[in-house]
Amino acid sequence: MPAKVIVSYDGTANEDDAIALGRVFVRAGAEVALAYVRHTHEPDRDRETLAQHEAQELLERGAALFGEGGEALGRHVVTDRSTPEGLRALAEQQGAEVIVFCSDSHTAKGHIAVGNSAQRLLEGGSTAIAIAPVGLAERGAGAGPQQIVAVGDADGGARATAEALAEALDARIAPVVNGRTDLLVIDSRPEAGPGRVALSSSAAHLIEIATASVLVVPRGVALPFGRATAAISA
C-alpha cells in the first residue's frame, strides 16, 4: 500500500511551499490529500453552512495550486479548537503516515522553521512530520529532490525511507548534508519508543539550520514510497 500524506493548508503565507512538498510525495508514489482545520462550530445553521463553504473554497484554491491532478485531490475540513489535534485525529481516521507543513511565516527564504502545530506533533506523535523550506514552490512544478540524506542509526526507519524515496524520485542518497541536499529524512531518537516521534537535540539543531525539506519519521518506521503506486487521494 502507498503512503498516505495529509498536507496542512490554510491559505496563509508559505502554504504554497507545503503544496509543493506534497507534490513531491505524489511523485514518490504517495496518496495525498489537503486538510484545513476550523477552530469553531457556528451555532447558527446558516452561519455554519457559510463557514463550511468558505473552508471548502479555501481547499479548492489549494488544490488549484497543486497543478495537474489537483482537481482529484482529497479535501478534508476538520473542526477542532486545536490545529495539531485536529490533524492528528484526521491522520488516524484516514490511516495517514505523514502530515506536511510549511515553515513558520517569519522564516527567511530558503530556510526551515518549525511552526507551533508541527512542533506539537513532533513531541510524541505517531505520524511522520514533513516541513517545506520557504521558497520551495518557486522552484517549479517539475523540480524534485536530487540528493537525499538519511540522518539516524541502523535501528531507525530513516535510511529505508530515504532509499525508497530515492528510488521513486530518481534521486541519490548522499552520506552527509551539504549545500546540494534537497531532502533530509530524520530518525526519531531511540528514547521515543517504537512508532513514536521525538527529536534528539542534534536533530532539532539540524532542522534549525536546514535549507532542504525535512521528513521526520517515527522510531523504527520505514515509510512505503514507490513510483508504481503514485496516486492522489479522493
In short:
The protein is of the alpha/beta class and about 230 residues long. Helices cover about 30% and strands about 20% of the residues.
Give the secondary structure arrangement, pairings included.
Blueprint: E1 4-8, H1 15-27, E2 31-38, H2 45-66, E3 74-79, H3 83-94, E4 98-101, H4 116-121, E5 128-131, E6 147-151, H5 158-169, E7 172-173, E8 183-187, H6 201-209, E9 213-217, E10 231-232
Parallel strand pairs: 1-2, 1-4, 2-3, 2-10, 4-5, 6-7, 6-8, 8-9
Antiparallel strand pairs: 5-9
Helix pairs in contact: 1-2
Q: What keyword list fits this structure?
A:
234 residues, alpha/beta, ten-stranded mixed β-sheet, 32% helix, globular, disordered C terminus
Describe, in plain words, how this protein is organized in 3D.
The protein is of the alpha/beta class. The protein is built from 6 helices and 10 strands, in the order βαβαβαβαββαββαββ. It has helices at residues 15-27, 45-66, 83-94, 116-121, 158-169, 201-209; strands spanning 4-8, 31-38, 74-79, 98-101, 128-131, 147-151, 172-173, 183-187, 213-217, 231-232. Strands 1, 2, 3, 4, 5, 6, 7, 8, 9 and 10 form a 10-stranded mixed beta sheet that branches. α6 (201-209) links the parallel β8 and β9. α1 crosses α2. The two termini are 15 Å apart.
